[in-house]
Amino acid sequence: MDFSTSSYGKKKLSETNYAPVPPAFREALLKTGILFHVYYDNCTTALKPFNEAETPCTETRRFPYYCLLHLLSGDGFFYYAAHRKTEFFEQGTGLLISPGFEQQYGGRTKNFTEDSVCFTGPLADEMFRRGLLRNGLFCLGTERRILPIIRAIQRASLPALLEASALLVQLLLALDGERQRVGRPACRQHLSALLARLAETAEHEWSVDEMAEYLNISTNSLRKLFLSEQGMTPKHYLDQLWLRRATDLLCRTNRPLLEIAHLLHCADPYYFFRRFRKLSGISPARYRREFQRET
User: Fold this and answer.
1) Distance of CA 230 to the CA centre of its chain
2) Which residues of 25-48 are buried (b: 16+ CB within 10 A; e: fewer)?
3) Whole-angstrom distance, CA of residue 68 vs CA of residue 39
4) What pTM was estimated for this model as a whole?
5) What is the pLDDT of residues 92-145, one digit of tens each?
6) What are phi and psi of 112, to 5 degrees?
7) What domains, with CATH codes, occur in the chain?
8) By the 8 A CB rule, do 144 and 70 touch?
C-alpha cells in the first residue's frame, strides 16, 4: 500500500469507515474524553453542482458529532445557516463543525477530496465550551495533518486509539494557537463585513458569541478587536445598534410602543422600556415627544 503524503492526488489508498472503534473499546475511550465515529481517508466526493444564486442554501444538515475536515484537492463552499452566509474555500483549507450546527458544504466547481475525522466526548465538549474549538474555516496548509490520527485509528487497538485521541487533542490545540496568532490581522480585514452584516440583519438579535463565531475567533479576541478598531466592546456596539434602531422606529414611524418592543425582539414590553431608559437616559415616550418633531 502506498501511504505517501508528500503531495495531493498521489495517495492510492482511499477509505471511509463509519465504525472505526471496536465495541469493546468504546467505553474506555469515552472515559478518556474522545470517541471516534467516522473517518475519511483521502476520499473524493463527486461534484454536486453548486447554485450560487440559491441564497439561502435550501438543503442543510446537522451532524451528531464534531467533524474536522481537511480539503486535499478541489474547491468548496461552506454555508452557515444561522447567518445565511456562504464562504468559498480552496485546497489546504480546514473546516470544523460542531454537533447540531446547521450547515452545508461540498464541492463548488471541482470534485471534493478530503481527510476528515468525526468524534464526540466530554473533552471535546469542554474544549468547545472554552472556545478552543470553533465552527468554521481555517488554514491547514499542504501537509496532511489529520493523516497521523487516521493511521492510528486504523490500527484499531486500544493503545493506538488512545494515541489517536492524544494526536487529535494536540492538533486541535495547535490549530487554536495558530488561529489566535493570525486572527487579529485576518479579522481586522473582515470586521467591516461583520458590521455591514449586523446592519443588514436588524431583524436578528445578535449575541457576542455569534459575532465571534462569524469571524471564527474567540470572544476575548473579538473584544480586543472591537476595543482597538471601534473604541468600544462588542456588547456596547450591539447596545448602540439596538438603540439606533429603537430611536429610528420612535421618530420615523407612528407605530405603538408595544409594536416597537415586539420588532426589537422584546417579548416583555417592560424590558424594552427599561433597556431604552438605561441606554438613552429617558423613556421611549418622552424621547418620541421631544425628538419626533425635529426629524
Assistant:
1) 23
2) beeebeeebbbbbbbbbbebeeee
3) 9
4) 0.62
5) 889 999 999 999 998 888 889 999 999 999 999 999 998 889 898 887 888 899
6) -115, 110
7) 15-182 (2.60.120.10), 236-294 (1.10.10)
8) yes
